[in-house]
Amino acid sequence: MLSNALAYAREHAQMFLASLTELLAIPSVSMEPEHAADMVHAAEWLADYLQRIGMSEVDLLPSDGRPLLYAAWQRAGPDAPTLLLYGHYDVQPVDPLAEWRTPPFTPTRLGDDLFARGASDDKGQTFACIAALEAYLQSAGRLPINVKLIIEGEEEVSSTFLRRFVVEQSARLACDAVLLVDSSMLSPTLPLVMYGARGNCYMEIEVVGPATDLHSGAFGGAVENPFNVLARLLAGLQDAQTRRVLVDGFYDAVHPLQPEEQTLLAGLPLNEAALLHMTGAPALAGETGYSAIERATVRPTLDIHGISGGFTGPGKKTVIPARASAKFSMRLVPDQDPLVIARLVEEHLRCQTPPTVTLTVKTLSASRPAVVDYRLPLMQTVAQAYQAAFGAAPALMRGGGTLPIMADFQDALAAPLALIGFGLPDDNLHAPNEKLHLPCFYHGIEMMVHCLAQLATDA
Amino acid sequence: MLSNALAYAREHAQMFLASLTELLAIPSVSMEPEHAADMVHAAEWLADYLQRIGMSEVDLLPSDGRPLLYAAWQRAGPDAPTLLLYGHYDVQPVDPLAEWRTPPFTPTRLGDDLFARGASDDKGQTFACIAALEAYLQSAGRLPINVKLIIEGEEEVSSTFLRRFVVEQSARLACDAVLLVDSSMLSPTLPLVMYGARGNCYMEIEVVGPATDLHSGAFGGAVENPFNVLARLLAGLQDAQTRRVLVDGFYDAVHPLQPEEQTLLAGLPLNEAALLHMTGAPALAGETGYSAIERATVRPTLDIHGISGGFTGPGKKTVIPARASAKFSMRLVPDQDPLVIARLVEEHLRCQTPPTVTLTVKTLSASRPAVVDYRLPLMQTVAQAYQAAFGAAPALMRGGGTLPIMADFQDALAAPLALIGFGLPDDNLHAPNEKLHLPCFYHGIEMMVHCLAQLATDA
Fold first, then answer.
1. Three-class secondary structure of residue B165 per DSSP
2. Which among A238, A316, A433 has CB closest to B202?
């Protein structure tokens, strides 16, 4: 059964690629209202595909125009284990569009890479799972275990619907293991299993000064410039030297890194030189006392994502803008609570805000960090599948990114959970020229085929 | 001759308004290349108008697509004094367009105000001068004195051509007095004569970190975020408490305010309450140790005008942008040299920039401050003309804004000079909903009629 499924996967590689290309051409940007129809289109495309390959149950759950796709095949019998797979079909916005070398929704193959928004995050990875299911269902008429599949359309906008669904419909999602397929390997020959994810607290602040934009010639010096205040507020969030977040209580719930995990991290090929190469930065920077990979995975951080207001066109305009705003977010680690952090940050900012302006603080999203015991048997099962498909055992680490539903799945399902994937660090996630490395895609399909077989064997 | 000219001015008020409306409908935004044709159109409209009313010499000097208009009438005889009048026909960009209540280039009268970009700065004021010349030329066939008129199209973009012209063609501009007509009164019943202007040093800086936009989940904490650095650099330019600019040497050339001028300023109806009302800010702010009006006129300052980069759309995107940039400028007072200040600021910023990013610093423009002796007879002449037209003697102060050519005129022409105007502090210069208060426009025409007569009498 395994060898037939593998043979099917290899024989149909070009067909899988063609189907993925169709899916990538649908601009399912969950964040932008003008793509509402595309969101439904992408969800329906997937539902139709899953029905055609033989999933016995396919449901589209409306979620504010970004349907949640639930599919299942549960005919392996009550004694067979049940695996819950998770992926998402929504993608990030494409701006800055001018920096794309190929149109983001015209998937373009260049050598071994397929360029398109969502190619890696997460349509390509999700589709690798679907292809593995197809390989079994079409070659053997069945799967080796029971499988439930969740593909959401709100990963890039906080997973609001799914997070409620997981709590309210936890019985429907009952399973023996969860694999979240939305992650990167370390290199095309070094897979990675992640046993944690950082949380995120995303905030937007606005500083309002004069009632209207003013001319700096008429009032400059006598009236507060919202940008001058905003710069001070943002600069005051982080120490210039140690890069520690200066908000009182920010680190209170952070656990010190255990020596065992420190060793695990130090053993990875992710030293400073590697990160320098991956980022193209003149030099790395980060919190004093931690290695670069520790800073990027197990330590909390704060990043400003955008600042707006005033005059930013060509040339010069001497305006004192009435308002200035900034978006920033903090990656959080266990056991930082994003809502507590949001409150602390707001208090800190309010204390620093002079009475010459008014400050508005909004929390745009709050996602809890999560960590799983990396010594669970599930990690071994997954490792064997990677070994079989990629010829290499995966490294183990906590991820620096955020999967809002990871903590929710943990709470609701009480099943072991791992974060896996087939992306690469240079896939340009959330950036121009996102791509999928096709050898990873093809090996990813095989890895999932092996994984299903291995879960049946281990049961 | 004076009474006929005044009668003409009053009888033709509606015609002047109609002509000004035509001029305001031409979107002569000097800063935006897409308005190149409009610049030429506005200049030609003015040249044509000046020819029709009887100016004996009208020249359009090409200036990189923003022609400089020179006109003269020199038939008052060699013993009559010569007045040089200055105005400009270029206007500021209109953004943010959404905040305009009426279309910026569809002049719209609401009550006593005419709303349009450039209505006050400076088409309305310039046209008031032209209307006064017309009143004499059409009612008497001559002017009481010799007049030269410069109307430039580059005031909002650093007056590059005019500044060279003033030096190279100073003989052509030889005169006995200069009036720069590009300013505001304190209220519709309180005129203002300015005897100085602040300089300006406008800079743009860019901070570049990683080679491309990165995902803060993948690299946040380990790579420098250009925005985090930019916020620190900008915050580090000014002391949070005293609001003093923290650049070494910034204040070295600043003269302490003389008690006589301090008294002059304190006597103006520009106290904190007035400035609060004018700006609509929750509270005023500024350099410790100075009154609000001192801060806005005779003290140097620093204002951030715009910050760009990263993600600023709706929703959230967890990007570490590859680059972030900011525009800011400093208003300067005698004897600060804008090029020296630019160098000091660049040195300061470079010292504060960590090796984790690269910094680019550009000086977009550098204009010298200027001050004239406010006890010169010209000030009295002008005051009498204001008294006659507005029924009130003007206040005297230095202006907080910048007229790049003021210092150049002083150097090249060795003639007394004053900055006058018919705008109002709430005209929304450089901001949405710019307007001209029509009673000021009509009285402004009469003031110029009186001024020409008074200069003939005083000679």
1. helix
2. A316
Spell A400-436 as b/e; 16+ CB within 10 A means b: bbbbbbbbbbbebbebbbbbbbbbbbbbbbbbbbbbb
Nearest to A192 by CA among A269, A256, A95, A286: A269
| Cβ separation B235–A240 shorter than 8 A | no
User: Six-digit token pair at A395?
Assistant: 């490294």
The pLDDT value given to residue B156: 87
Taking CB atoms and an 8 Å cutoff, what residues of chain B touch A421?
A: none
Orientation of helix A36-53 relative to helix A13-24, angle to 10°: 160
* C-alpha neighbours within 13 Å on the C-beta side of residue B167: 8
What does the DSSP 8-state code read for residue B33? Answer: G
Q: Which residues pair with B117 in a beta bridge?
A: none
CB contact under 8 A, A306 and B305: no
The 3-state DSSP class for residue B99 equals: helix
**What was the pLDDT predicted at B316?**
86
Secondary structure class of B220 (helix, strand, coil):
strand
Residue A253 has pLDDT above 90, yes or no: yes
Other C-beta atoms within 10 Å of A48: how many?
Answer: 10
Of B209, B296, B364, the CB nearest to A222: B296
State the nearest Cα–Cα gap between A103 and chain B, in angstroms: 17
Q: How many residues are listed for chain A in this entry? A: 459
Residue B345 has pLDDT above 90, yes or no: yes
The pLDDT confidence band at residue B64, using thresholds 50, 70 and 90, is confident
**A64 pLDDT above the threshold of 90:** no
d(CA B162, CA B150): 9
How do strand B177-181 and strand B82-88 relate by DSSP bridges?
A: parallel
Compare CB distances from B305 to A210, A231, A311 and report the shortest one's residue: A311
Q: Which residues of B touch A154 (CB under 8 A)?
A: none
Kindly report, residue by residue over B410-433, the tens digit of the pLDDT: 999 989 999 999 999 889 988 899
Q: What is the mean pLDDT of residues A106-130?
A: 98
Q: Nearest-CA neighbor of A53 among A130, A157, A162, A165?
A: A130
Residues 6+ apart with CB under 8 A from B26: B38, B41, B42, B45, B105
Average pLDDT over residues A140-159: 95
Residue owning tokens 């504010």: A64
Residue A110 β-bridge partners: A113
Q: Does residue A459 carry a pLDDT above 90?
A: no
> Closest to B430 (Cβ–Cβ): which among A99, A209, A317?
A317
Given a cut of 90, whether residue A315 has pLDDT beyond it is no
CA B400 to chain centre: 9
> Does ipTM top 0.85?
no
Q: How many residues does chain B have?
A: 459
Task: Give the chain B residue nearest A321 (alpha carbons).
Answer: B305
Q: Give the count of beta carbons closer than 10 Å to the beta carbon of residue B383.
A: 20
Interface-testing mutation among A101, A304, A352, with chain B (most B C-beta atoms within 10 A): A304
Per the CB < 8 A criterion, the answer to whether B205 and B361 are in contact is yes
Residue A206 pairs with which residues in a beta bridge? A325, A360
List all residues 6 or more positions away from B277 whose beta carbon is below 8 Å from its beta carbon: none
pLDDT for the residue A252: 98
Question: Which residue is associated with the tokens 């105007």?
Answer: B421
pTM of the model: 0.84
Task: List % helix, strand, coil for chain A (3-state, nearest 5).
Answer: 35, 25, 40
The answer to whether the beta carbons of residues A243 and A300 sit under 8 Å apart is no
